Amino acid sequence: MAAVRKPVLLGLRDTAVHGRPTGSGAWTASKLGGLPDALPVVGAPRPVCGRCRQPLALVVQVYCPLEGSPFHRLLYVFACPRPRCGGGGGARSWKVFRSQCLQMGEREAQDAQKQENGLAAEDWCEGADDWGSDSEEVPPPQLTVDFGSDTHSARDTDCTARLQELHLQDSAVGAAPSVSPGEEMALLSQAPQFLPYYMCVVDEDDYGDFVSLDHARSLLREYQQKEGMDMEQLLSQSLPGDGDEKYEKATIKSGDKIFYKFMKRIAACQEQILRYSWSGEPLFLTCPTSEITELPACSYCGVRRIFEFQLMPALVSMLRSTDLGLSVEFGTILIYTCEKSCWPENQQTPMEELCIIQEDPDEPLFN
């Protein structure tokens, strides 16, 4: 029996974030660039580069609570944008953190913590294909993701209608107790910043109906000319779904096959900057290495890590700064997190997770 395909949500750049608005719930906005927002009782991450020891820049902040869990949940991805560190290249110059806080009162929180410790992660996303169901039964735990605050520039789909109005707050709120708000702001202000934009979300299946594969065909013809490969048979195929792998019968190298599949899949939405599929499968750009096939377990609870989301090539050109010397370069960044999404009681600092970099095999093809 074929495995059930996990839903894939696409993050798109939306409207610019202007200023530093105040108000509660800033951390419920997903964005690229800017400064990290702190949860009420957990300080915002302030990581430094493993190579140059300078503060890292926030690349994306994703609000992604798991339905059936009592926690608010934020993921942050940082990179070093300085030229001497390869524009963010190399594992030592990238970091990802997970931050959580309970949504309810103290007594309820204790009961919820006990329930959380015994909740299997595969149950959290069960029924994720049934969003918006009117069933009278209590829905099973599933994933809930909000990628932004303003959906005017996104496709007019049911998926974007699920977004709520979100706002930013000063990231000094909720700082770690050992650092005063003034010191927190000073530390954050030292970090390089990309211009901040909100993110909105669309469902990949809904979005694909509006777009042709002309751009992918053009890019792949360039690739064919460069590599001297006969790809006409490949180009005649429609966008493959999971299980439609006819194009793989062509005589091509494994790496070229993976690259072709990547290009053809993202052609359905060229402006996607993030692909979200909790416990799903990443879209590989190059052949998976042992780093991916032998993922380390969660360093806090020992449970295995699972794929959660990845950053896409279109994001590279969207990370802009008033400092022309700042930039990052990558093919795709794969984010893996604790399957249990563990969170020790009274934890007040973000927990580091795992990011894996797949370099761009041919950067000009993505421009």
What would you call the structural class?
A: alpha+beta
Q: How much beta, percentage-wise?
A: 15-25%
Report the mean per-residue pLDDT as an integer: 74
Q: For the report, how would you describe the main beta sheet? A: 11 strands, antiparallel
Q: Identify the strand order in the major beta sheet.
A: 10-5-4-3-2-6-1-7-8-9-11
Number of helices: 10
- Uncertain parts: 118-142, 148-184, 237-251
Shape descriptor: globular
Note the gap between the termini. Answer: 40 Å
Structural Rg: 21 Å
Give the fraction of residues assigned to helices: 10-25%
Strands, total number? 11
Order of helices and strands: EEEEEHHHHEHHHHEHEHEEE
Describe this structure in words.
- This protein has 10 helices and 11 strands.
- Strands 10-5-4-3-2-6-1-7-8-9-11 form an 11-stranded antiparallel beta sheet.
- 41% of the residues are buried.
- Strand 3 and strand 4 form a beta hairpin.
- Helices cover 20% and strands 19% of the residues.
- It is α+β, with helices and mostly antiparallel strands and 367 residues long.
Keywords:
globular, single chain, alpha+beta, 11-stranded antiparallel sheet, 10 helices, about 375 residues, 11 strands
In short:
The chain is α+β, with helices and mostly antiparallel strands and 367 residues long. It has ten helices and eleven strands.
